[in-house]
Amino acid sequence: MSANPTKIRRRGLMLVLSSPSGAGKTSIARKLLASDEQLVMSVSTTTRAPRPGEVPGRDYNFVDIESFQKMVEAGEMLEHAKVFDNFYGTPATPVREALAGGKDVLFDIDWQGTQQLRQAARSDLASIFILPPAVEELERRLKERAQDSDEVVKKRMAKAGDEMSHWPEYDYIVVNRNLDQSVAQVVAILTAERLRRERQTGLPDFVNGLRRQT
Amino acid sequence: MSANPTKIRRRGLMLVLSSPSGAGKTSIARKLLASDEQLVMSVSTTTRAPRPGEVPGRDYNFVDIESFQKMVEAGEMLEHAKVFDNFYGTPATPVREALAGGKDVLFDIDWQGTQQLRQAARSDLASIFILPPAVEELERRLKERAQDSDEVVKKRMAKAGDEMSHWPEYDYIVVNRNLDQSVAQVVAILTAERLRRERQTGLPDFVNGLRRQT
Predict the structure, then answer these.
(1) What residues of chain A, 14 to 73, have a C-beta less than 8 Å from chain B?
(2) A2/B contact by beta carbon, under 8 A
(3) Which end of chain A, N or C, is less packed with Cβ atoms under 10 Å?
(4) Which domains, from first to last, does chain A contain?
(5) What is the widest separation between alpha-carbon atoms in chain B?
(6) Backbone angles phi, psi at B119, to 5 degrees
(7) Do the beta carbons of residue A142 and residue A184 sit within 8 Å?
């Protein structure tokens, strides 16, 4: 062995949150971001129209289909997918810049995006699936969103079932029975992932001088 | 896919804490055990003499060499090693009983024991290496243990360097700068490991009826 067996450098973490819509993922993500200065959100780009209250650049980057397709063709999307009639994607540049700046990046993407991102990120990715405590609870929350029509709610419930069928592909499962408890669980996952040997940034200098004697 | 793609059952976790002596591992383990009813300690068996204050059955099971060797020959040790002139080992039966009873088990063992346990436990094992913030701090703490002779302190420092050289074999690294912070970090690791998909015990029933549609 050499005198410097394992020099540790910062490896930024890509943390994925997926869930069916209505399971509380957005609330968990907001609380998580507010509690952690080292974590930044990856803002997705979409071709769908903004909903009331959505802020461009914060909730989504809103673009037309032509611009979206140009980004895909230029290789500027880490992942992208078509959901219903709209395109969604993750621009690569802000993610690379955040990781290079020592930040960890949070992604709010679906199972298709996660599969693509997993191939790009490998061991730098940790994925969490948020499940509702019961299907009825999910339906109730989706119906409360008055801005959606009955038909959209029905499509969303079908999509929720499809999305949830992918929970076995995720590293961690959080059942969102209580918002504060779920946030605490996601914080624990983030804390633990940062303490993983290959991501530890706070190791004392002397460890680099340790000589393996086996 | 079948209608029940992934039925979840409880898989107990084996959590290993290793560190050079003097790095604070025992204090961390005690606080962790006091804060978590689902976690029980694996009590090692040793042939060394009890030190003042050590309680048989709590700190160690103290046995003679003949009894120890009989346990090894009978396959009753999950791992065992000789350190200086003494034998140390982990009896398998209490660990199996605790896991079968739905508990997680905490191990305070060295790198040799961890290597052996890793082969026996596979994915049910998560390992944490506790590092001191500086080598000088470690030496100071070892010297404070007035019960040990100078020669023993010297041997322990050499052993500490050897033990620490194995930190790259562990899943997580905790640098013990502050006891409460280190305990919080180990608690976060334990929380996260329990939320891993393959260990989750709190999933709602409906997930077993989800049909994969890909």
Answers:
(1) none
(2) no
(3) C
(4) 14-200 (3.40.50.300)
(5) 68
(6) -70, -35
(7) no
Q: Chain A: residue nearest B162 by CA?
A: A213
A166 part of contact set with chain B, CB < 8 Å:
yes
Cα separations (Å) of A114 from A15, A17, A97, B127?
10, 9, 20, 27
Give the H or E element holding residue B188: helix B179-195
By Cβ distance, the residue of B162, B191, B212 closest to A185 is: B191
Instruction: Give B51 to chain A, closest Cα distance, Å.
Output: 29
CA distance B188 to A2: 33
Task: Give this prediction's pTM.
Answer: 0.88
CA dist B188 and B182 (Å) reads 10
> CB burial class (10 A; 0-12, 13-18, 19+) of residue A194?
buried
CA nearest neighbour of A182 among A13, A54, A29 = A29
pLDDT (tens digit per residue) in A20-50: 988 989 999 999 999 999 999 999 999 999 9
Nearest CA among A167, A50, A20, A38 for reference residue A105:
A38
Q: Which of the residue ranges A24-28, A154-158, B183-187 would you say has the lowest mean pLDDT?
A: A154-158
Q: Where are the alpha helices (DSSP H) in chain A?
A: 25-35, 65-73, 92-100, 111-121, 135-144, 150-164, 179-195
Q: Can you tell me the distance from the alpha carbon of A71 to that of A65, in angstroms, rounded to the nearest whole number?
A: 10
Residues with Cβ < 8 Å from A211, sequence gap 6 or more?
Answer: A1, A3, A5, B165
Residues on chain B touching A24 (C-beta within 8 angstroms): none
The answer, for A86 touching chain B at a CB cutoff of 8 Å, is no
Instruction: Answer whether A4 touches B (CB < 8 Å).
Output: no
Put the strands of the sheet holding B172-175 in their side by side order: B39-41, B104-108, B14-18, B125-131, B172-175
Core vs surface per residue A142-171: b (16+ CB within 10 A) or e: beeeeebeeeebeebbeebbbbbbbbbebb
Chain A residue with the nearest C-alpha to that of B136: A206
- CA-based nearest residue in chain B for residue A7: B168
A80 backbone dihedrals φ, ψ, rounded to 5°: -160, 155
